[in-house]
Specification:
Structural class: alpha/beta
Bound molecules: zinc ion
Number of helices: 12
Strand order of the largest sheet: 4-6-7-8-9-10-11-12
Helix content: 25-40%
Strand content: 5-15%
Radius of gyration: 21 Å
CATH topology: TIM Barrel
Number of domains: 1
CATH class: Alpha Beta
Order of helices and strands: HHEEEEEHHEHEHEHEHEHEHEHH
Largest sheet: 8 strands, parallel
C-alpha cells in the first residue's frame, strides 16, 4: 500500500479547507434572512418525471434525432462550417444578426484572483467542454442541455465552481470579453447582454462593479449590453441599482436559487419598483435545472413569478431558460402577463418548437448561457425549430430584445 508522502498531506488539507471555506461563506450569506419555501411532493416528483419523459422522447419529435459528435459536429448542418481552429462558424447569410440576452464572464469571488477579462486565449473552456477530447462528447440537442454532462463532467463542474471562490479557475480565465466578442462573430451575433450575479457573500462580491468597469474600458464595448445584479436582502440594493444604471447597466440579473430568495417575497419588491422606474428589465434564472442542490430548487419555481408580473406591469421580465425543466409551468405565466418573455437558453430543440407553438415568436428571446455552452448550440436549436417558419427568427433573435431593452420608449 502506498504511504501518504509529505506532498500528499497539504493537498488533502487544502481540499478540506476549501470545502469548509466555501460552505461556510455561502452558508453565512444564505443564513441572513433566507426562508424555507414550501414545495409539494407532486412538484418534487414532477422534475424527475419530466426528465425521464424528455430523455425518452429525444429524437422522436418532428425534428428527428439531433445527436452530434461534439460542437464540431454542428458543421454537418447546412448553416455551419468549421473554421481553421475547428470552431463552428455561421455560414448562412439569411439569419438575422442576433442579440444574446444571456451570457456571463469569468467569475472569481472571495479569495480567488480576478481573471483578466481583457485577455484573448486560444480556446474557450466551456463548462460543457464537449470538444476537449478530439472525438468530442456526444451532444443531444433535443434534451435540456445539462443532460449532456456525464457524471465525471458534473463533478468537474462542481470543483470548478469551488475554485471560483478560492484559488481561481483556469476555465474562468478563458471567459473573457475578447473571447465572447470572437464567439459573437462566429455565430453571426451583433451583441450580448453580460449578466453578473450578486451572491450576497461577506466580501469580494462585486462582479457587477468589476464587469461594468471592464466592459466600459473594452474597445469592443458596443458589442455588449452591460448587466448588473443586487442581492434583494442588501439594505443598499436600491442605491446600488441607481448607481449601476448611471454606470451604463441596461439589464438586471436575479438568480433566486443562488441568491436564496423567493421572487415574490416582500424583500424583493423594492428592487422591482426601482427597476420599473429606471427602465431596467429583469432577467431571472427561472425554474429547476435539475443539477442544483435540492434544497435550492423551491426558490425558482415558476409560480413565484406570477405575483411579480401582476404587480409590476411596466417591468419587462424575462424568465431565463424558459423555466428550465419547469417549462410547462412557465408558459402560462407568459400567457397571463404581457410583460413576461421566456428565454431559450438550455432548452432542447423540441421544447423550443413547443414554446413557439404555444406562445408565438413575439414572447420568446434568445439566450445561450455562454460560457456554459457555445452560442452556436442555442442558435442551431432555434434554426431547427424555425425551419418551417423562418419569419419567427427575427423577433426571437433580435426584435424582442430590442423592444425589451427600450421598454421605456415603446
Ligand atoms: Zn446563466
Amino acid at each position: 500500500m502506498r504511504r501518504l508522502s509529505d506532498d500528499d498531506a497539504p493537498t488533502i488539507g487544502r481540499r478540506t479547507f476549501l470545502r469548509w471555506l466555501v460552505g461556510g461563506a455561502v452558508g453565512a450569506a444564505a443564513g441572513c434572512g433566507g426562508e424555507d419555501v414550501p414545495i409539494t411532493r407532486e412538484e418534487r416528483e414532477r422534475l424527475d418525471a419530466r426528465t425521464r419523459a424528455e430523455l425518452a422522447a429525444s429524437g422522436r419529435g418532428p425534428l428527428g434525432p439531433l445527436r452530434f459528435r461534439g460542437y464540431r459536429g454542428l458543421a454537418e448542418l447546412p448553416w455551419f462550417e468549421l473554421d481553421a481552429d475547428g470552431h463552428p462558424v455561421l455560414a448562412a447569410a439569411d439569419v438575422p444578426a442576433g442579440i444574446d440576452l444571456h451570457t456571463h464572464l469569468g467569475m472569481a469571488l472571495l479569495l480567488a484572483p480576478a481573471p483578466d477579462l481583457h485577455a484573448r486565449t486560444e480556446r474557450v473552456a466551456y463548462f460543457l467542454d464537449c470538444d476537449a477530447e478530439p472525438g468530442g462528447c456526444e451532444l443531444d440537442l433535443d434534451v435540456y442541455m445539462n443532460l449532456n454532462f456525464t457524471p465525471a463532467m458534473l463533478r468537474a463542474l462542481r470543483f470548478g465552481a469551488l475554485r471560483q471562490f478560492t484559488i481561481g479557475d483556469a476555465a474562468a480565465r478563458t471567459h473573457t470579453i475578447p473571447n465572447l466578442a470572437a464567439e459573437l462573430d462566429r455565430a453571426g451575433f451583433e451583441r450580448a447582454a453580460v449578466l453578473p450575479i450578486a451572491f450576497g457573500l461577506p466580501f469580494r462580491d462585486d462582479l457587477s462593479e468589476r464587469w461594468l468597469a471592464a466592459l466600459a474600458e473594452s474597445p469592443e464595448r458596443q458589442r455588449f449590453v452591460p448587466g448588473c445584479s443586487v442581492h434583494p436582502r442588501d439594505p443598499d440594493a436600491v442605491e446600488r441599482l441607481a448607481d449601476f444604471a448611471a454606470r451604463g447597466a441596461r439589464i438586471v440579473k436575479l438568480h433566486p436559487e443562488m441568491q436564496r430568495f423567493r421572487p415574490d417575497a416582500p424583500e424583493a419588491l423594492d428592487v422591482y419598483a426601482v427597476c420599473e422606474r429606471l427602465g431596467l428589465p429583469v432577467i431571472f434564472h427561472a425554474g429547476r435545472s435539475g443539477i442544483e442542490p435540492e434544497r435550492l430548487r423551491p426558490y425558482a419555481l415558476p409560480r413565484h413569478f406570477d405575483a411579480v408580473a401582476e404587480r409590476f406591469p411596466g417591468l419587462p421580465i424575462i424568465l431565463g431558460h424558459g423555466g428550465a425543466r419547469d417549462l410547462p409551468d412557465a408558459i402560462p405565466i407568459a400567457e397571463r402577463h404581457a410583460n413576461v418573455w421566456l428565454g431559450i437558453a438550455s432548452l432542447g430543440a423540441s421544447a423550443i418548437l413547443r414554446l413557439l407553438d404555444r406562445l408565438g415568436p413575439e414572447r420568446i428571446v434568445f439566450g445561450s448561457d455562454w460560457p456554459f455552452y457555445p452560442v452556436a448550440t442555442s442558435l442551431v436549436k432555434l434554426l431547427l425549430a424555425t425551419k418551417d417558419r423562418p419569419e419567427a427568427r427575427e423577433p426571437v433573435l433580435r426584435g424582442n430584445a430590442l423592444r425589451i431593452l427600450a421598454f421605456r420608449d415603446a
